[in-house]
Every structure is written in structure tokens, then in C-alpha cells.
Write the C-alpha cells for this entry.
Amino acid sequence: MTRPNSFAGGGKPPHSSGSAAAPKGPHEPTEAELKREEKPGVPGFETWAGVYWFVFGSFVVVVLLLVAFSGAYA
Amino acid sequence: MNALDWIVLLGTILGIAAYGTWRTRHTRKLDTYLKGNHSTKWGTIGLSVMATQASAITFLSIPGQGFDSGIGFVQNYFGLPLALIIVCAVFLPIYRHLGVYTAYEYLGRRFDAKTRLLGAGLFLLQRGLASGVTIYAPAIILSTVLGWRLDLTIVFTGITVIVYTVTGGSAAVNLTQKWQMGVIFGGMVTAFVVLLTKLPSELGFSGAAHVAGAMGKLHAVDFSLNPDRRYTFWSGLLGGLFLSLSYFGTDQSQVQRYIGGAALREGRLGLMFNALLKIPMQFFILLLGALVFVFHQFEPEPVFFNRSEWQHHTQGPEGAPFRAIEARHAAAHTERETAVRAWMAVRESGGPAAEANARKAMLAARDRMEGVRNEAKAALKAADPRVSTKDSDYVFINFIMTQLPHGVIGLLIAVMFAAALGSKASELNALGTTTTIDLWRQFRPLAAHDERRNIHSAKWFTAIWGMFAIGFALYASFAENLIEAINILGSIFYGVVLGIFLVAFFFARVRGTAVFWAALVSQTLVIILYNVLSISYLWYNLIGCAACVILGLVFQGLFGRRSPAQA
């Protein structure tokens, strides 16, 4: 999921902006850093895709709970 | 409010502001000033994103919404988790990889200077005008209820936020928002617990939920496809998805909160934290309002929740008809309470037919009560056509002031101010940053390499936007209609801005000129449709976005064929 260069905007190098090539922060990530950042570092999750599926699943559960709540007290 | 409330309020609000100012007073690096501390972890980012979205109006109006219309408003947030997943997967890695300070800086790199200026200009126009409203809207409610001077409330709020935002920039905003959210969570949970203790002892939470449900306040999800319904699962999911995608992905006040931090992971986890918590949090606030409604089935409520407005009329020379309405309201309340208690008794021990009859009687008593309240609003309007008869914003603050113990009142007023300061700080921070990076540095390119001068400019622009917001809020009291116009303005701009970004991310062959004209034409189309159609404003996010993407592709086809070099 972390492949910024595959998107349309990711191709230009960070300092290619002509007008305001200003002092940039020290956080220009290297390829190694980007790869390391691909790991979410959350126990039980190896990839970001897993985290996103978990969040999506939680959303579905919350909606179902809301439906059940409405049904129980309507 | 007594001395204890004042100590809690001022101690909390000024303490957090002073702490933020003191801790970040030595910020000398532009990167830290604009993006926040590099060691910032996901928890701080997550709370900062949440504090930016949750303004004082969230905590004043949403319980009122729960009281008035029930908890169905929660559906408006259904698109949010999905939007945050997309922002995490697509938007955030690109922003971080390019090391941009603003979302619009990315447009300059992907397209050209004019598209960057268009994006930044739309943001500055919309947020700049709205900046006065975010101070004015809570100030008018708090000053009315607490009897404070409106102008002093506006100036106090504005100056406090300007001091720490200008001093420490993003680092101060992140730090203070973390503590402000702590106050907000603590205050709202305290209010919830106190409210439960105030309900009749035989009721309990389950009984209160049954009363609210029987009164039609707990219908959370509506799968209806009827476009006339205001809040449905579908409008919340689709319209809310595009609104949230635009807000979290392209609005600098949010982008600035998550592009900093120790690593990409921290920003992502901060956003996922919001994706998980936002709907339960909004549900909780709405439920609080629904339970205040239940509380008032057993304890008399004011005829009109803006008490000072009502008292102004009852105590005036023409007060007799208003006092007569009050008497009818008191009688209607007694009748409704009797009907509710009868329904509760039958629900426990009677059969289905008896329960249905008792419920019918209870709903009829509720409608008669509502009729008296409408009569009161009509009388107010007849006495003064300028008066606003929407009193739901005053429901929760009225409960706080009349039912909570001293000390907790101070804490809850601190919640409102913490929310106002948190959202305002992000807004000023973003306005100052965008003005510096996307405008000032565009026109002063030689100054771009002078870090000290950049910080100096960012501080000045932040302060100027803050003073503008205070001035606008002071003026807003003379132009109530302007507030509504600005809110509408915001909702019709978001979709097109999102369209520009989606083209940038997903359609590599579309160039600057095509998307620039597509955005202008789409914006015009949305404004025309807004004047012609009467659909929910959420849909304009989808329409504006879709029009911009489709026209971008069409124009690229036309321009590209005519002159590839220019396109």
C-alpha cells in the first residue's frame, strides 16, 4: 500500500519546485526508510492493508451495533 | 458560575495555553514551526486531528440535535472511516514523500503554479471567511447564557489562541490540543455520569433508552433511498465519504496535523485512531442529547431554551401573552409526564394492546407539548422578527448551567472553550502556513532560503489572520445572514478541490491547464446547481468532485490534441 511513486504526483523529486525550493525539513525519507515504514508496527498486523481491513471491519460492526441498538429500543 | 467554576475554567484554559506557549517558545526551525515536533507520536497526532474537527459548536449543537431530532445525525459520519483509509493509503505517503508543507504545494509540483494558487486561494477564501464564524458562533451562545459581554468573549478567545499559535506554531497547536482533548473527554464523561444520576431512580439507563426510543429519538440508521430524507445511511456513506475525503485529504488545517510526526507510521496510526473513534464519539454526544430529552420528561424544561431571550419578553411591558404560554407549557409538561409514567408502568406489566394505547397517549402528549413550544416560538417571532427561534443549540448549555454541580459547570464551560481554541488554533496555523508557503514565497522567491525570515513571516501571517478572525467575529453580530452564507460557501467548494487532488493522484496524463479550467467550470456548475436544486448539501461534494474529474479528462483530450506542449 505504501508505493507513493506509483501515483501520478509521486514522480517528481522533492526539491523540483522551482519557485519555492525552500529549506526543507530533515525528513526526506530514503528507500530503506520507506520500506521500514511500510510495517505498521502494531501487534498482530504485518501490513497496512491488514490495519485498513481491521478499521473497515470495525466500521461495519459499529453500523450493525447501531442498527441493533435502534431495534432494541425503538 | 461561582468562584470554583471560575478557578476550574480559567485554570484549565489559561493553564493549557500558557503551557503550550512556554514549552514551544524556542521553536527556531521552520520545519518544526510548520509541521510540528519531529518526535510527535501517533496519539498526539490522532488527538490533534480530532481536536481540529471538533469545534465548540460540536459540543453545543450536537447534543441539541440529539434532543431535537434524535441520534440519526450519526449517519453523517459514516463516510469518514472509509475516507481516512484512502487518505492513509494514498494522500499521506505522497505528502510525506515530497516533504511538502501544504497540500497546495503538492499541486504546484504535480501541475503548475496557477493550479497551486487556485487550490490555495479556494482554501484561504473559504477558511479565512469561516475563521470569524468559528469564534463568533460559540461566543454568542456562551455570552448569552452566561451573561458575559459578547465582544469581550470574542477578544478573550481570539487573543488566547493567537498567543500560543504564533509563539510555537504547529508544535504548540499539537501540544495544546492533546491536553484540550483530555479536558473535553473528561468533561463530557462527567456530564454523562451526572445526567444518569439525575434520571428517576426507577428508570436506569435501559429504561431511559426505552423512553427515548419510544419517543423516536434512537433511530440511528435509516436505509431509505428517499432523497428527501435528511440523514440516511446512503447520504452519510456517499456524501460523507466525499466530504471527509476532501476535508481530511485537502484541507490544510487537517493536512498540517498529520504530515509531521516522527514517521509516516505515526500519521497513519493517528488517522486510524480517528477512523475507529469518530462514530462512537459522535454517537455518545448525540445520545447525551437524547438522554437530556428523557430527563426533561420528568423535570420541567424551559418553554424556550434561550432563556435570556425568553425572559426579555416575559419581563417586558408586553409580557402577558408570554406568561400565558408559560402556564400552558407547565400544564402540558404535567400531562406528558403522567402519560410517560403510565406508559412505563404498562410496558412492565400490561399486554401489547395496553402498551400500544399508552404509547399512543404518550406521543399525543408529546405533540401537544411541542405545539406549545411552537406557539412560544411564533410569539417570539411576532414580537421581534429578527430573533432566531432555533433554540436547540442552547439545550445542553442550559442543562449544564441548571443541573450540574459547581466545579463541573466550570469544567464543562472549559470543554466549550477548549474545543473552540483547539479548532481555531489549527485554522490559524493553516492559514498562516498557506499564506507564507503558497503566496508569500511565490512572490518573494529569494527569501525562501532564509529560514529565520520564513518563520518571521509565518508568525506575522498567523497573527494577521487571527486579528482578521476577531474583527470579523465582532462584525458578524451585525450580519447574521453572512454566517449561513459562509457555511454554504464551504460546502460547495470542497468537492471541486477534492476533484483537483484526485486528478493529480490518479490521472497522470492530465496536466495543469486542463485541470485548472475543469475546476473553474465545475465550480461554476456547482454554484448554478446549488441555486436550482434543493438537495442535501452533502451531495455537492460528490457532484463537484465528479464534474472536475470528468471535465479534467475531457479538457485534457481537447487541449492535448490541439497543443500538447501547452497542455
Notes: Chain B has a mean pLDDT of 87. Chain B has 21 helices and no strands.
